[in-house]
Amino acid sequence: TRAASVRSAMARHAGPRLPLIVKNLIPTLSSVFESQRITTTAFFAELLNSNVVNDLLLLETMMDNVTGRQKDACILVRMLALRGLGNIASGSPEKVRKHGAKLLASMVNGMDDKDDPHNLVALEAMSSLSKLLDHVEERDIQSMLLHIAIRIRPFFDSEQSDLRQSSILLFGNLTKFSECNCEVFFEQILNGLVTLLLHLQDPKPEVVKACKFALRMCGPNMGCEGLCDMFLNHLQEDRSLHYGEFMNNVCKHLMQSYPEMLNRLILTNLFYFKSNWVDIRAAAPMFIGFLVLHVDEDHCQQVDLDQLISGE
Asked: Which residues form the Maestro/Maestro-like HEAT-repeats domain (predicted)?
């Protein structure tokens, strides 16, 4: 907050002096003192939220220096560096297209950060990537689309609600780019579908809203008009949902359009029989019940009754 206030004041009043200020601060980005690296990276990150750096021809210099902090030993510095790169989407959106490939690579590297025990860097990478997606060239995201979708999938069930929310929102945003890789990305939608539907019962309202958004975005890519219409009509952000009735109808459409998916959908639901969240634990067997209710006899042979009865 303090960095944001300073950035705002600098952008308004420092104007012509900013290039000299930035020049004098750049050496502290590699200071031996962690506190100096944190403070300067935070300041640069907030400054990148303003178009003034573009007006003063500072954007490329600042972007290159902030990008260089991605290998910093301090997790907070790495996180703030990604925040700064993501802030370019609001500070200089017209420049995101030009630097799209470089910015996207930074976000993917952040999600793959190996020394991030609390996933702070990954969280910032997902949040920043969602902001950048509205401005990047489609060709730049296509080569990374599958990797990102697979990488964020485990976060859907994270104990940290902010990770669940950010990863699910990002997944929804990625579907905008799925047309060129329709079949490949459709597989990722199927992999996440059960989780997204069950997390409509998530204890955190912000995660529920993220699931509604992601499912609305997935709908047009599923090749089932009835399912798409259901997601669009019933999953509006602030509309209350009669979950049981909704799931009954969802399963009807699923079994009409993808009856061969029955066993796969059941197996995914079985995993949630041991969920830490009681409402999700209750939703999983109901989901299975509706699937079996609506599948035709020809496809019932897919069901492993012993596995289903044991709940494992």
From this structure: 68-310
